[in-house]
Design goal:
By secondary structure, this protein is an alpha+beta fold. The chain is built from 2 helices and 11 strands. Strands 10-7-8-9-6-5-4-1-11 form a 9-stranded antiparallel sheet, with no helix packed on it. The chain has a two-stranded antiparallel sheet with strand order 2-3.
Length: 152
């Protein structure tokens, strides 16, 4: 009985130590928070955010979700992302359709990029533009607008 208790206690300590090492490693791997001043209202997923200062950070240790949070208010949005290949300067990339802006990409200070999943509203606009695309006087699908990103 004593051997079983000692064996169980040893196993528990080993599991706790492994959990602590994993937590420290994942906290170390998280990217730093970045900040941007966005001069226009924009969409992140189905959430509309007003113009202003924002912090941008990974919401998960793996970096597959992104949180965009207003510095001035409690407005925030969360969106799933995918890795982009290539390198670029730190910036936020928006797709602009008329006066509507959709956050499309985030390039970190490390030079790596994340692409946000396209929301329903942007897909509907893209579909409408492709329908109008056969008309020569129709506008192109979207304009790309970049906003500088800085590390906090």
């Amino acid at each position: 009985m004593r051997k079983q208790l000692l064996k169980g206690l040893t196993m528990l300590v080993a599991i706790m130590a492994l959990a602590m090492v994993s937590a420290v490693a994942s906290a170390n791997g998280q990217s730093r928070t970045s900040k941007a001043n966005v001069p226009f209202e924009f969409m992140v997923g189905d959430k509309s955010l007003p113009a202003g200062a924002y912090t941008i950070a990974s919401a998960t240790a793996a970096g597959d979700a992104l949180r965009v949070r207003s510095v001035e208010s409690n407005e925030s949005a969360l969106r799933i992302t995918s890795l982009l290949s290539g390198k670029s300067s730190p910036k936020l990339v928006f797709h602009r359709y008329g006066e509507r802006y959709f956050l499309a990409e985030v390039w970190s200070t490390a030079g790596d990029g994340r692409q946000l999943m396209t929301c329903k509203q942007e897909r509907a606009i893209q579909k409408e533009f492709s329908r109008l695309g056969s008309n020569k006087s129709a506008p192109r699908a979207y304009e790309t607008v970049a906003v500088a990103l800085a590390v906090q």
